[in-house]
């Protein structure tokens, strides 16, 4: 049984229908990222889970208990939900030490002092804050402050942890390290967690599964690899990564493969959504899945116009008929006409 179960959840704010009939199940110990364009409803969903916002209909069940259920009128207040919160802004008390900050939630729960001290110490060690317990937040780096806010949420042993853009205040380099320790810390504690992020790479690095929201609806929920390799719509294919999207005409459809006229070429591509013979379609080609060289059975003819050196790879811009196409290669490439090759498996076709 799922630890967290969100069923048919809907929420209106003002005249706007923000969440539309959302259904998400989260297993014990699972880390879910809520990802989606700005305004897609990620924060509103997190607020509904924490109890800061009350949905209009549907239900939220945590560890077998209703937190919200419009059918029987249940609304459990935030402080009774046994949910830990981690905010983007850390929200630490500046005049309290690290130890006092972390102990605060236990004091509220009237945990006996000895027990609280042991729990705080264990949690600080677990989160890599040993030796810093007497410091004030102002004497810590941004990364350390975020660890304190995580320790404060961990110490009360919540059934569910909610994190709102937890790493967005850290600089780029620190964020890369923070992704690793955050995932390690959550996994070591077998914590069930839902976090909001804008950052697709961060969602892929930390989450077991990513729920992509689009206009308040669940567009797809899947593992990072499944989302990238098997997007169920053009929206997801485009949202995950930065692919080329070309317009073509479907000539033929056979099993899971379509034959497509793309400019002057005829190519094959994998179908992840049904397309019909004769219809206009979109073909998704990831720059890193294209290769250059001799013409193969599945290729486009392109003329190279620009190359950018991006450190880890080169990005080449080709003119292919009326469209432009990006190709990534590890080595430089000369100017002129060339074949851009790909396997039918690596190209995805969707209805336009
Ligand atoms: N009080 C309100 N009244 C009306 N609309 C609101 C209110 N609060 C938020 N909204 C709208 O709800 C939509 C969803 O907002 P939400 O913050 O949940 O999105 P989000 O996916 O978290 O976006 P972001 O990534 O920009 O933080 C937005 O279009 C926002 O303008």
UniProtKB/TrEMBL annotation:
Residue span(s) of domain ABC transporter: 4-240
CDD domains, per database record: ABC_Carb_Solutes_like
Pfam families to which the protein is assigned, alphabetical: ABC_tran, TOBE_2
Chain ranges passing through the membrane: none
Cited SMART domains: AAA
Matches recorded under InterPro entries: AAA+_ATPase, ABC_SmlMolc_Importer, ABC_transporter-like_ATP-bd, ABC_transporter-like_CS, ABC_transpr_FbpC, Mo/tungstate-bd_C_term_dom, P-loop_NTPase, Transp-assoc_OB_typ2
Domain of life: Bacteria
Keywords: ATP-binding, Cell membrane, Ion transport, Iron, Iron transport, Membrane, Nucleotide-binding, Transport
UniProt-recorded name of the protein: Lipase
Organism: Deinococcus roseus
